[in-house]
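Long-time lurker. I teach an intro course on protein structure, and each term I like to show students one example going from raw sequence to a predicted 3D structure in token notation. This year I'd like something fresh instead of my usual example. Would anyone be willing to generate the tokens for the chain below so I can use it in lecture? Attribution to the forum is fine with me.
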Amino acid sequence: MSRLNPHYLHHHTGLEAVVSPPLDLVTAVAWHPQREELLAGTRDGCLVSVDPLMGTREIACDLPEAGALSISPDGTQVALLGRAAPLEIRGLPDGDLQVQVDMQFVGDLWVGWWRGGVAVAGQGLDRRQVVVLDHAGRRRASGELPPGVVVGVDAKGHLMLGRVSSRGARILPLGRGRFDTMPPTSHRLRFGPGGRLIGVAEGGVTIWDQGSGPVTVKTYGVSAAALTPSGQALAIGTRDGGVALVAVGGGALERARPGQTGGHDQAVRVLAFSQRGRWLASVGERIWLWSW
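-- Reply from a regular --
Happy to contribute to a lecture. Here you go:
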């Protein structure tokens, strides 16, 4: 396992704080897959488009609080999942409601587009569950998620499950294979671009790729992490509001110093890279957009 030891760079930064859009109470974000546009869901039920250069545009304000959102690969639809609320699929760019499906998950929310439609996962009243839907919102499959297992989508649009135990990470196609019986580690897991598995723990961030061994960035106070689409750089957010960038491909290391570049007054909860450019969105109670 390779390890990178982050340090603060006092006279150089890998990030530049560009703009903080006038949005409060942001709970979920996703970048448009075909242009430099960020969609943000808010605690008071609004869906807002953010263009880093042109500003913000309200799409809809009749939604439940968005706990997770995802934009379809062709950019024509957005799926939103709220706590104890239905899944909603809305058209873009106007936000018209197209599909609504009762879900009633209370936490640990995830939504993503697979090659046949939409999949959602979350904690119900008595169990964690994954539900697979087609494009019309019809249920294709559902099942209980074992402890520590997360759901994601690979580069070809197939659904995957991931889990980490003391034996290492295991990534399986949904519905195929079994996980070992060892207890899961304490990592907070999510899938990143290309089916990579990202785990946040007290001592840092680990990235697992099916084609190579794990890479661990050792640091403390991490509250969020995200990979660039190429997988060559890792963004980390901290509990004290800092945002940092680490190059994980060639062994080089860059980390922004929050005191020099700005940042958040609260813990960074979400980080997301744009898919077609060099933008990073970080979410505390507000959004910051960074150029890198």
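Some talking points for your students: Residues 5-13, 251-261 have pLDDT under 50 and may be disordered. The helical segments are 258-261.
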